[in-house]
From TrEMBL, chain A:
It comes from Novosphingobium indicum. The lineage of its organism: Bacteria, Pseudomonadati, Pseudomonadota, Alphaproteobacteria, Sphingomonadales. This is Uncharacterized protein.
Automatic annotation (TrEMBL), chain B:
This is S-adenosyl-l-methionine--l-methionine S-methyltransferase. The lineage of its organism: Bacteria, Pseudomonadati, Pseudomonadota, Alphaproteobacteria, Sphingomonadales. InterPro entries: SAM-dependent_MTases_sf. Residues 1-31 are annotated as: Disordered. It comes from the Bacteria.
């Protein structure tokens, strides 16, 4: 599936990042997955779990530490 | 809380002193938010500094900072162009001997988005601001999110008061800024601009801490500023301001496993002892719109951290 547009969540901890993803998913066209850039402080596994079925609508990527 | 000792208020130092002109379209200069802000400004070491206020309102802080904090120059601008002429009039009546130190940018200026504003920001030591932190109830995308959380808008909340833009900001317009998710998009947009155009300037900003201070501090750090709380006060929640924004944030976390990690900070009492979540607060005002609610207002100073 095509991945579109990266939602910038860098700098956000888990809670504001989940809120941002859920806000962006309202009205999102389901033919494409939403790319999401998470900050280093985020727990990708917990965030994926927290999204439930909606997790298939997003592709989470973490900003890597250098 | 309540440590008023030594705090001078331009509007109440002397009952014979001139009162600021405060038309309906301007944010009320006697509002407790402004009182808290001035406590912070007093503690911000503004002596001899060039200060720029984004969102100047009635100009009450310009008069206060020049008169009581010893600033050397005061620049300012506002999205509502009527406020510049009002601020100039207020400065002449409240502190005529300082009127020439006030050099506002005329016209409608969003944040610092004109050449003249950026030129003045570049000469500024401390940028001060108290900008809206609640998404406009009429914002279409925000309304769709709120409806998905089954949070309805209280009766009358979609009506715009004369000073609407003092309370709400166009949420979708600032969605490129990550902290927009908790209502800080406009404030984060300002921090990014200051970082770019005045990288050495400190910022002193006033916040309603309904989402908690931790998230506000997180926004400062994410944008390269070390935060420090320099004043705080519990104030009454403005009756006219819609709090469904905060209830929608809590609602969106239901069933995520994170619901216990985030609850908004409202209080049932002016001492801030009985905490209420936004949902609990909303339920109380739904039953009786006159139920008094309280929340913290705090002034945060941000000092630029060296670039990583
Ligand atoms: C809460 S009032 C504060 C007024 C004054 N600074 C005070 O502390 O009393 C917010 C002010 O910000 C202005 N404002 C709102 N959005 C703005 C923006 N995007 N750029 C500049 N000013 C804005 C409003 O017109 C209003 O005067």
């Amino acid at each position: 599936m095509h991945v579109a547009q990266t939602l910038d969540c860098s700098g956000l901890s888990n809670v504001p990042a989940i809120l941002r993803i859920k806000q962006a998913l309202v009205g999102w066209n389901d033919d494409v997955r939403m790319g999401v850039l998470l900050g280093e402080g985020c727990d990708v596994e917990r965030i994926t779990g927290s999204l439930g079925a909606a997790s298939s609508r997003v592709q989470l990527v973490t900003a890597t530490k250098q | 809380m309540g440590d008023d000792a030594g705090t001078e208020m331009i509007s109440d130092t002397d009952s014979n002193a001139p009162k600021p002109e405060a038309p309906e379209y301007a944010f009320d200069p006697r509002d407790p938010w402004t009182q808290t802000f001035q406590k912070g400004l007093e503690r911000a070491n503004l002596q001899g500094k060039a200060v720029y206020e984004v969102g100047i309102g009635t100009g009450i802080n310009a008069a206060f900072v020049l008169r009581f904090c010893g600033a050397a120059a005061f620049y300012g601008s506002d999205l509502d162009p009527r406020l510049i002429a009002l601020a100039e009039r207020n400065l002449i009546s409240l502190s005529p001997e300082h009127a020439e130190l006030f050099q506002p940018v005329k016209g409608a200026v969003s944040l610092i988005d004109t050449d003249e504003a950026r030129e003045k920001i570049a000469k500024t030591d401390v940028v001060i601001a108290c900008l809206p932190q609640v998404g406009d109830p009429n914002d279409e995308r925000f309304a769709a999110f709120r409806e998905e959380q089954s949070v309805s808008l209280p009766a009358g909340a979609e009506e715009e008061a004369h000073d609407h833009i003092a309370h709400y900001y166009p949420w979708t317009m600032f969605d490129e800024y990550p902290f927009n998710s908790v209502g800080l998009g406009l404030n984060e947009a300002l921090l990014r601009r200051i970082r770019e155009h005045a990288p050495r300037a400190q910022v002193v900003m006033n916040f309603g801490a309904r989402i908690g201070t931790e998230l506000i501090f997180e926004m400062f750090r994410a944008n390269g500023y070390e935060p420090e709380k320099i004043a705080t006060q519990i104030v009454r929640q403005d009756i006219g301001t819609d709090i469904s924004f905060f209830a929608a944030l809590e609602g969106a976390l239901q069933g995520t496993g994170f619901e216990k990690e985030f609850k908004c900070f409202f209080f049932a009492d002016p001492e801030g002892k009985t905490r209420l979540s936004a949902h609990e607060a909303q339920r109380l005002v739904d039953k009786d719109p006159d139920t008094p609610l309280y929340h913290e207002v705090c002034v945060v100073r941000g000092t630029p951290m060296p670039a990583a």
